[in-house]
């Protein structure tokens, strides 16, 4: 006679709840809150929505460049030519319009110039096997020199009102700058591309282990070319917005802008040697550094300390990335 089966009456062990993991993104968000709170104390009225939104006009172009730089650095590259290419795009657009080309066509020519400049960088890195630092250091000088040469260091300022309104107008009752939605849309598009597509996975793979990615069948050269082409396209968009904002196309535009762009990306958690990084982190890095620089100026700190702050945050960003990477999971 078989023994009756007995069932345990002990309560089933509850599955452990997932523990909250404090990430670098959480740390950046907390840093931004603390920073804004401190600036609100130092500068009365700084935290008013109108003030914060108006300040965003000063970093829209930098933010757009930082989005493209995220792809470049995640892939293990670097682009030092972004500011020079921005100036070249602006000058090409301004001079072609001054020569009689309709402004929409001149804008299209400027976009093509930006993409072409990015593809030149990408081709030299991907197909010639040159180091991206050396390539973009050279094109930084070439693009800036070309901008000065073709413009004879002269500026173009006679743009129509509909164009300058892109960088100077507001909507929502005069509260939101017209160019802010461009940054928001660009950030969403770049996040989807990097985080939700095969292309984005390939970008991460190349930055983490290029040889293994190549052996897995990924066309590494074409992906690198696309990354730098995307960077060039975003440079062109930033050039349009900046030209409209200052109502001038000139060869000395955005000198030194490449350092804040790289600092924002690294501060946002992108590993400088490639293989790791996120668009939300970059956006937070842009906000932290941009509001810090603007807030200190509003508090009466001299502008020349801005470079000191950017350099310090670049070092701190690299250090923080290493600490989070080595921290036990």
TrEMBL record:
It comes from the Bacteria. This is Autoinducer 2 import system permease protein LsrD. GO terms for cellular component: plasma membrane. It is found in: Cell membrane. Pfam families: BPD_transp_2. Part of the ABC transporter complex LsrABCD involved in autoinducer 2 (AI-2) import. Probably responsible for the translocation of the substrate across the membrane. The complex is composed of two ATP-binding proteins (LsrA), two transmembrane proteins (LsrC and LsrD) and a solute-binding protein (LsrB). The keyword Transport applies. It is a multi-pass membrane protein. InterPro entries: ABC_transp_permease (IPR001851). The keyword Membrane applies. It comes from Lichenibacterium minor. One of its GO terms (molecular function) is transmembrane transporter activity. The chain crosses the membrane at residues 27-47, 67-95, 107-130, 170-194, 225-243, 274-293, 305-324. Keywords: Cell inner membrane, Cell membrane, Membrane, Transmembrane, Transmembrane helix, Transport. Its main location: membrane.
